[in-house]
């Protein structure tokens, strides 16, 4: 690609990331306005939680249809249409004064949001060389999370200074801007490149979905997303705040700081993980399992700690949970590398269902267990008591175990398929000892060459896995 073509690729990616960032702002803004929503809609806590649950249900339910539509119509149309839906949803919310009217707004936002991320990921292989895609996938996911900060800072400021309608109209304005940029500047692929869109009828669509699902690499992506994303999502969107502030007695300002760390950790670790995945494509599922194990261990330590956990342990908890976001992006890398480009949207949609289903399920069960313990008298009248959270949060170990079993069993199927294609995976132990041997050899050569002429040696050899 020419340097002009390169510039254009970064520009297209920038517009896509902006649209995704605004989708995250639209997704998270309602959570910031919880107290105002209670007063405006005169709603109970469970009616308010219906807003979030419904929005996420719409989001998860639309993933496969949207994936199919991305393959059919291309990312530009989907990103622009998603921005229009989110804009309409925020305008509806700005005007709504009853729970049903508010829910209509959130459903529109959930639908528009569902159309954005998959379509933005679909732009990457069309505009960039394959070697850059893993890092750019990570960067897309992490930069998008900055949308949460827009909700927490400028949106909250406008909400408190000018009220409900101006704040939501402001987010509607940002979605309108995303629409204009996408419609005017996005292109599905560089000029002169073949158009990967597939015009297909119902029967071909069903076949495409079934082929994407039958590909074990797609399911490996879905279980990877399922296993790594949910714990952090549940923590950030629902139960993290009451757990830290009420059960652990952390100062609210420190809680806000801990929650903001999520975004920062993702931005730092995402590209590192993306680079690692690019260098070790045959060890992606091992990384997924290691991060899932780290999440299980840090939860075990926090929930078993006698009494309230010290701040350092809560900090480690937040750091490890935040790693789950970048780790879940490995799932999309599986979808991309195990499916042809004309089926990538569909496969990405299947992967994206994993983490959001696990999150919805866990959010619901944790709430249910907290309610049950409170109604039984176990919580001593404190819905958010530490002992109740210890029991309720333990549900996560079951979800993690189910996810890890899914990863291991799909990985076996993928490896069997690779063996049939003649790709042999060297055992991890052999790779690690080979790496150690190369490092020793490199150091010895370096010492030798320094001894001879004082010059430095060549770069360290890359690992072979
Ligand atoms: N795994 C997330 C993205 C992410 C990255 N860091 C934290 N979260 C994901 O699946 N995103 C899809 C979306 O629509 O946001």
Automatic annotation (TrEMBL):
GO CC terms in record: lysosomal membrane; plasma membrane
Domain annotation Major facilitator superfamily (MFS) profile: ranges: 9-415
Record keywords: Lysosome, Membrane, Transmembrane, Transmembrane helix, Transport
The keyword Transcription regulation is assigned to this record: no
Catalytic reaction annotation: L-alpha-aminoacyl-L-lysine(out) = L-alpha-aminoacyl-L-lysine(in); L-histidyl-glycine(out) = L-histidyl-glycine(in); L-lysyl-L-alpha-amino acid(out) = L-lysyl-L-alpha-amino acid(in); L-lysyl-L-lysine(out) = L-lysyl-L-lysine(in)
Annotated CDD domains: MFS
Ranges where the record places region Disordered: 442-465
Protein name as it appears in the record: Lysosomal dipeptide transporter MFSD1
